[in-house]
Specification:
alpha/beta; Rossmann fold; 7-stranded mixed β-sheet
Length: 180
Amino acid sequence: MANLTLITGGARSGKSSFALELAERKYSRRVFIATAVPLDEEMKKRILQHQKKRRALFHTVEEPVHLERAVAALPLDTDVAVVDCLTVWLGNLYHHLHEDEATVRARIEGFLKALDQVSCDLILVTNEVGWGIVPENPMARAYRDILGLLNRRIAEKADHVYLLCCGIPLMLKGDPTYGL
């Protein structure tokens, strides 16, 4: 793997915009791996807004479930791939795997291993969900816990980690001049 950047933060904190800006500033051949599924009108509108922000500057790959395959199949001339977002991907896994936690964990391990084989730089976007109230049901608590574990495991691998707060990127790990 070349260079791995993790961007985390709360909902609507500017994570996706920052990821796109970083990719546009530093790279010319860009791929965007989208994990969202347009299940309702509100999500369709969100997806359209994201597409408009990317314009034609990114080749888009839509992969809601098999993220390990998507990163393994990136074109060889790709400079950077932006994955947006791991939070939605994990929710998709829970849905498609019928909340089978052991299989979800195995798929996460497969994705983490796939990251080691990628030759281009990667920018992964995720949400920090463990700072709010404790969810009321076991499935939501398990999801929150596994997302926290996924984020931690990727942060360990990452060269750079940013926390977005109120639209401001805070460098948590890596070279403070990276991305400037």
